[in-house]
Design goal:
Distance between the termini: 32 Å
Shape: globular
Structural class: alpha+beta
Oligomer: single chain
Strand content: 35-45%
Protein name: Polyketide cyclase
CATH topology: Alpha-D-Glucose-1,6-Bisphosphate, Chain A, domain 4
Number of strands: 7
Organism: Pseudomonas ekonensis
Order of helices and strands: EHHEEEEEEH
Number of domains: 1
Length: 147
């Protein structure tokens, strides 16, 4: 399975501040570079990410193609949390969010392990580049919002 890992230094913020920002559901659409919307009875203003929580959302890939996701929070700790796709457009998707002290701020890391429907061919053709673009944009958004 492909693995994408990106780390960004967020200056002037502690790991606790960065992780708390990520754990607040209201910030999810602010970080995500494409249109997303919660599904069901989820109120993003009242959503706090915690282990065992499941939620659904619609993501418009390329801001055009609707794709429904169901995710579960598998782990949540003092320096990380992990979400995993239960149902969605990929064969598998696991996303680790990690924070650590860095020089002058916090190192924020996204580590994504995924598998596309269609296997290695579709990953090389479309999915790998798409994932890199999405997560690079997420890191730019994190810097803009917290930096």
């Amino acid at each position: 399975m492909p693995v994408l890992e990106l780390t960004t230094l967020i200056p002037g913020r502690t790991p606790t501040q960065v992780l708390d920002f990520c754990l607040e559901g209201v910030n999810f659409p602010k970080i995500f570079p494409e249109r997303i919307a919660p599904l069901g009875d989820i109120d993003l203003n009242d959503l706090r990410i915690e282990a065992g929580r499941q939620f659904r959302f619609r993501h418009w890939m390329f801001n055009l193609i609707p794709s429904d996701w169901t995710v579960a929070i598998r782990e949540a700790g003092d320096s990380h949390f992990v979400d995993e796709m239960l149902k969605g457009p990929l064969r598998a998707f696991r996303h680790e969010h990690r924070v650590a002290p860095g020089e002058g701020g916090t190192l924020y890391t996204d580590r994504v392990t995924y598998s596309a429907i269609g296997g290695a061919f579709s990953e090389r053709l479309l999915v790998n580049g798409y994932m890199r673009r999405i997560f690079e944009a997420r890191h730019r958004n994190m810097l803009r919002l917290l930096g």
